[in-house]
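Subject: complex prediction, re-run

Hi both,

The earlier run crashed halfway through, so I resubmitted it with identical inputs.
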Amino acid sequence: MIVAISAAVALAALGYVAFGGIGANLVYYWSPTELMEAGRKAQGADIRLGGLVEAGSVQRAADGLTLRFRVTDGTTTVPVYARAVPPAMFREGIGVVVEGTMGADGEFQTERLMVKHDNQYRPPGDTEDLDMKELLETMKIADG
Amino acid sequence: MNTILGQSLVLAGLAACACGAPIAFVAGARRSDRGLQWSRRLAFVFGGAMLLANLVMEIALVTHDFSVSYVAQVGSRATPLVITLVSLWSSLEGSILFWGLVLGLFTAAVAWWQREGARDYLAYTLGTLFSIGLFFTFLIAGPANPFAPTPPPVPLDGPGPNPLLQNHVLMIVHPPMLYLGYVGMSVPFAMAVAALLRGQLGPTWLRPMRQWLLLPTGFLTVGIMLGGWWSYEVLGWGGYWAWDPVENASFLPWLTAIAAVHSAVVQQRRGTLKAWTTILILLTFLLTILGTFLTRSGVVNSVHSFTQSPIGPLFLIFLGICLLAVVALLALRIDTLSQSGGDAGLHAREGAFLMNNLLLVLLMFTVLVGTLFPILAEAVRGVKVSVGEPYFNRMAVPVFLGLLLLMGIGPALPWGRSRPEAVRRVLLAPLPAALAGVLLTWLLGGRGYLLLTGGLAGYALWVTAARGLEPARTGRPGVVRSASRIFGGYLVHLGVIVTFVAIAVSATTQSSHEATLAPGQSMAAGRYEITFDRAAVEQQPHRLLRKAEVTVLRRGDAVGTLEPALSQYPTQREPLGTPAVRTTLSHDLYLTLMNIGPDGTVGLRAIVTPGVVWIWIGVLVMVAGTTLCLLSPEVGRRSG
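This time it finished cleanly. Structure:
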């Protein structure tokens, strides 16, 4: 009896310790539409936002260290402010994943900018179709 | 030709396991000498068939025999020979075949080295190994068959292995080490099952089991370290550990294996913790199968997701069967397990061992929850999330500090009952070393947690040195263990302390700098001045290398040139970054080329990380210590 009780207490403590911090440390994978639906919840949360770079939206700063662009999923568009040197493949019309959080001004703030992972070679300039599954894989791969 | 030969050899291995398992179990139950001899022969057949099957695959790879489906999948005439040789484990089917080889060799090795032990015990051990082998040879023969013939027309050339795996020499050694550790855990598992079947968990079981547990634990340690090193040298993000699900999959059984190595010491010295040691060993094996399921099934995505395939569910079934068998066996032998042998009292030294075990299991549980949570969240609520690094670090940092503390006070404490003043004396003696550690850390600029780490490390170093050299100094080895074994054990502790400190330093003091540079322009990174000279292009047989030639100055003195590059493989759209690293004993300068602009500018990231190299050095010291323990004369390998 005493063994059972102490085992239960130990398990509960273990569960608390293990699960306690999990809620605060989740990273959400969202599309622009899901991001907008989340509203104020998105501010301060750790988010990986996936979508296409909208054509004609990229503005690079003169020092090459920051840039602004818009990410779209066809229905919703989110402005992004990136303090990061973009990866080699970055261009308009390409699928990207940005990790950061929503600012109070409605602009997504990021310091991590990743280009969609693609196992198939396509010539540059080829138009992208938005494949959420592949995009999601990029979001998850970004852990490594 | 190769397809038929390979498939026949795999079927021979399958047959050896299918016959071996029942023969060995019956031989164990009847204590039959003839049955045992047949089991041993079949173990050699299993090992031999797997060795030859892998050899056939290597020949097919080297001769570019694209009629073998696996060669058509990963082979390429442009790939250098070394890379072709190691593409054996660059994709799913090949890596399962390699798994079969390692399991076959371990089974044969057990049959050879344990032959002079108790008959029924060896028979049960082999029976368990055959049962595991049956599952894997079935996978190789059926669902993940690397020898399947390529459907016509047979191609003239193939795509080559995954570019990420071609990119660095570490890929040659990291997977075999990991497999030797992962698969090797089957042996202590089989021995634990055998001991439970016999109903005896005494010293005749424990002594050889400890060696067979230590061996894969050592391999797993090296495998995990090399994985981190590869991630650091190849992936270009400047770190070596990201709590990636696949990293976690290798880390989980390592934690329980380390716990088992320690609780086995208590069992050998005091005769207690028998049930606990057994459960840890059983758990370690189950975690290796869980880890394999996680990485093979595609339920988690990571840099390792190249190994996804539909055989995932089979691993889940296998895991379920193993779990049921283990629970049933434990229930059946509950009386054996609850027999309290030896001194049941918990004294100072034993308490430290127990705390070490609790911390390791606590961390294992935390990592397990964090790894499985996203899978469950997606299955139950349909939300896509991942668990961020802070969750893992929140638990790992205190646990590692706790382990560092225990490495100091544990070995200082005496075994068994002792007087309080004696305990106080041995605990106070190393305090000057702790103070020196704090002071040194402070002088080097460390603050906060680093000061605590420095103090604990100083204390632990003192105790490690004092205890490890004691037998050599006084000429009195321990009661059970030889001087070299004791020295080896503390050498491992020394490596752990070095690695812990290096991890703490590198994780807290890294600095990163980014800039876009035109030729001739410079950027500053810490005390470095980095000048971009020119961009260059190099065509290699299997890839196109676009490099940035960079001159590096440290405090105004030229220290050399670095060439971070982007490698373009014909089969992949995005180029892969190949970082350039300048390693010194105190810090690393890590340069990644992020992009090459059309106007001739380059985007560069420079990361300065103190202490990284000591992580690898610490693990090498652990390997040296483990080797010494394994070669120690006191514990006879043949006593079983």
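The radius of gyration of chain A is 19 Å.

- K.
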